[in-house]
Design brief:
Layout lengths: L6 E5 L2 H10 L3 E8 L3 E7 L8 E6 L13 E6 L2 H10 L20 E5 L5 E6 L1
Parallel strand pairs: 1-4, 5-7
Antiparallel strand pairs: 2-3, 3-4, 6-7
Length: 126
């Protein structure tokens, strides 16, 4: 049996990344030092049995080359407009206004925000 456990992002500063993901509804559930080289911070959404997001801070590293292969994680939100208003109040702006992909006229609106390290997060209106 296979189960998806988590995605890991390497981050440049713990507090700013934790604050960003808390704005999206995540909660910090654990921190685990990895010897003298790193700290893993585990984030979960309310009601989840296990964390779905691992943030790894490597001591002495403040940025990473994100490359072009990886794109984003996706989250559904109950009210996209209200979510974007709350994020804007925290200084988090979308890449562009909400839209329907591929020029569709029906279906869910989406938009993207970036975390403090540049990783993209897709917000999908429910």
């Amino acid at each position: 049996m296979v189960a998806f456990l988590h995605t890991c992002y390497r981050i440049g500063e713990i507090d700013r990344s934790v604050a960003f993901y808390e704005e999206l509804g995540f909660e910090e559930v654990a921190r685990m030092p990895i010897g003298a080289e790193a700290i893993n911070v585990f984030m979960a959404l309310p009601g989840e049995e296990s964390p779905r997001l691992e943030l790894t801070y490597n001591h002495g590293v403040d940025s990473y080359d994100l490359g072009t292969g990886y794109n984003h994680i996706a989250l559904t939100v109950d009210d996209l407009d209200a979510t974007l208003e709350a994020l804007a109040a925290a200084g988090i702006e979308p890449e562009k206004p909400p839209y329907r992909p591929g020029g569709r006229t029906e279906g869910h609106l989406i938009c993207f925000v970036r975390d403090p390290d540049g990783y993209r997060v897709e917000l999908i209106g429910a």
